[in-house]
Amino acid sequence: MIYLKNIQIETIEDVRKALQTAIELEHSTIPPYLTAMFTLFETGNNEISKLIGSVVVEEMLHLSIACNLMNAIGGKPVLNQPGFIPTYPGPLPGGVDSGLIVPIAKFTKDLMKDVFMAIEEPEDPIKIKSFMMMKGAEDKLTIGMFYDKIAKQLTFLEAEAKLKGKTIFTGDSTYQMTNEKWFPAKELFPIKDLITALKGINIIVDQGEGTSTDPFISEKDLGPGEATEPAHYYRFEEIYKGRKLVKDPNAESGYSYSGDPIPCDESKIPNMAKNPKMSDYPVDSPAYVNSKFFNYTYTNLLNSLHITFNGAPEKIDTAMGLMYSLRLYALRLLKLPSPNQPGYTAGPSYEYITNDNLTPSEKDQYMENKVNV
Amino acid sequence: MAYLNSPRLTFSGKFQADPSTVNNDVNHYNNATFQPSYQEYGEGGTNGWWNPDGTGNWRLIDCVITSVTYMDGTTTSDPGKDPIIGMSIMDANSRVAGKIVDLDPQQQSVSQIWGMIVRIGQGETDFVKGNFEPIAFNDIWWNRSTTQKGSGGASASYQSVVTDLQWSEVESKSRYLEELRKESPDRLSMKFNVDMFNQQHDSAHFTIGRIVGSIGPSRMDEPKHFIMGRQFVSDLTCNQGMYMPLSTSVYVANGLLQEETKQFILDLGNFLQTAGPEGAIAESRTLVLAANVGGEAYVPLGELNFKLPKWYENRGGLVKIRLTDEQVDMVRNCPLAIMNQQSDGSLSPLVKELTHYVRADQFVFRMNSGEESNIDFYATYLGKPMVNQAIVCQFQDSLINIMGQGDGTPATSTPNILAFEPGVVTDTNGKATLTVKASNPQNPRGFIDGQVYALWYYLEGYPTVDFTFTIKDGNPVVLPAALSGIDPTNFISILVFDSVKPEVIAKPDWDKDVQPVMQQYANLYPLMSKGIFNLANREVVDNNAKLLRFVFDLPREDPNHMPVTRDLSRDKKQMILNYLDRAIKENALADLSTAERIIQST
């Protein structure tokens, strides 16, 4: 389970800071999830790939909601700084030292259990199987508690403002990013007041953790007619258990992993070396060059999202174009041998680089060759 | 004006061109005979050539600014004098890369760059950025390198304008940038040469090559894609259908007289041979610019200074010749020549200036029935506009055949469905515009859409040589063995698409109308069909209808435009949009999150 530092949230500036942490946190899960999913390409594990992909998309949605909320209260989301991307392997942003180290790794069932489920673990997981109960201590918060704290403080601050005939929702409404091409309107909507703010936060928490009594995403967050899905934690557990989660009157909790099987065949999954880094690869290797292209694309994606959430919401279209590009470079890396690591393939490293980054040797060479007149 | 003028900068670095090459063989467009092996690496029509997994991306990589020249004509390459030296010329930092696109499998010698952003700056700071207007390469030199073979030994050049400039208010402390902004606030001129291209797919530098170029001011009333200056084109010899400067070992150059600074700037970026894996300039002769003052009398103006180490990278392939007042007069009024200085000091002309010159500015067009394209011609004499000069334009059947790959089938250039006046006359700026109107070619090539045409043009009354391309009895193509004063790459390429019946556009049937088009894209662009969407599959198309509708409807200039090959006709595009609209309406699934589909693919 991830615990966040129990930060003080009192002023509107505190809420903005907390939201920036939320944005960084939502983003930080995407590289490890995406990587696991990329390694499932053409391995016959489509069902698992789809489950992980559905979580990635919801993390993207959560990031978008957090950014909209930040803009709604006059904050400024930052997504384009080198420090925005956490170091992998490492803890997630805003967290306390819980011993959970998140890697960039190929798909394995153990990765689901040891990392992905640990990231998404709710405060009180429903005892579908017996779980050791963990309670948030006073100095730390679960992700759900963290959002709850933001929601409570927003409510308080807005009430306080209302008394003075004011509102905390002072942001420019044209900054709100909604786009039905990418996210349904019932999930991504303009945040303009307390009601829409709380609705947004509720979607984040419910999709991520579920409620304390129901592992499935509440139907009111999805709208009628939507196929209900388990919250993230349970989706990863479905993969780990190899069966769909279903209602089960015979089970103590009312649910069990006794649905359709989710087959898993790890034999074709590329043996990606864990936690790849561009600097692992010799400059003169295809792995280095493609890693650089992947990282350009990733950096461009963050830049593009930053622009999107700082006044140009229509630029979400260009960000989505970059998602495709990212996928192509990741798949290419997974086909390349990792130099100096026999038996392993290269992989995506998610590093912030600018596209004038010369390697030190390239820079030296350039300066040596300079001829002044 | 344009990039040879002041204030200009030079840069060098690398580029990536990563096209899919399954479509390098026209027969691969035939869905009925398509084989899976066409998507595999390997030369020849039975395979997918050198890069079947290409993304289509075009990128600038590690391009460093190597020198700047100020309004007063002085040049520096010292970052201590101007901080812009050592900074970068970069492409997009918040959207996908630009795209490199062939016009047609039967005209592959005009690969265009689409959707490239150009930024001058450092890292995430750009002092100015804009859009590179799409243009094809020109003047391909097949055997520039004396040692490297194939594409690795070839070179070509691109020239266009960077538009929609956004200047940053961040202070650059660069005198150069201040001068550039003042001189050319709205548009920049950019020229670059590409060579040393790597087609070995196991190499780290696969799809990467060398780029060397210049950026300078641009005036709104001047051509965008060539310099209205002094033109030098070597004598050429036909070698297996390709023209090469076998007798001179130099290729094409152009120059500009700057009267204010009393300088002559000559672009030798695609003029000198190279050798070795590093592409070092291999010209050992002493070359001199001279004015032809009458008969065979030449007055030397200055040596071409290209022998300093790394001159090509550090000076963008440009040389500068300082002139006296008297020499300025001479350059203004006399034909020029690039001379070869013999060991005894005597000079003999290597390449004479093409005194009377005509160029079509944009020279690649895609058209549909009923559409008109305007072709802008500029005629010059010694770099000055030729007024009231007639320009002749005519069909040229055989040019296209020699520029593609394959054996010339299916036949190109027929039927003759382009309508245009046989000639136009230049105005006081030396400019003349020819309007070409297309009608429906009615699918003359069968399995591939439309037809590709070449138009040849020349100045009336100035036929410098007797020059004709002919086809004897349909085949084989017979080309002149040698050319003098002619640039055979200066012709116009036009792709005209087939029309589709209005009732089919309005109500397309998946199996009959849409699937064959999508199957062709799936075949020819395997990275897309295998890695993201298999467009040949109706379920995939229907489930992704919203997203596909969006990308198919993007303008060609957008780097996310689909298809990446930019060869979908107006009618077929509308047909597909109509199909997708219907799928969106009928398919309840299309209401699901599209973002999810991006992530999950196929």
From TrEMBL, chain A:
Organism: Flavobacterium supellecticarium
InterPro entries per record: Ferritin-like, Ferritin-like_SF, VioB/RebD_dom
Signal peptide: none
Protein name: Iminophenyl-pyruvate dimer synthase domain-containing protein
Domain Iminophenyl-pyruvate dimer synthase span(s) in chain numbering: 19-241
A Pfam short name: Ferritin-like
Domain of life: Bacteria
TrEMBL record, chain B:
Domain of life of the organism encoding this protein: Bacteria
Protein name: Uncharacterized protein
Species, as recorded: Flavobacterium supellecticarium
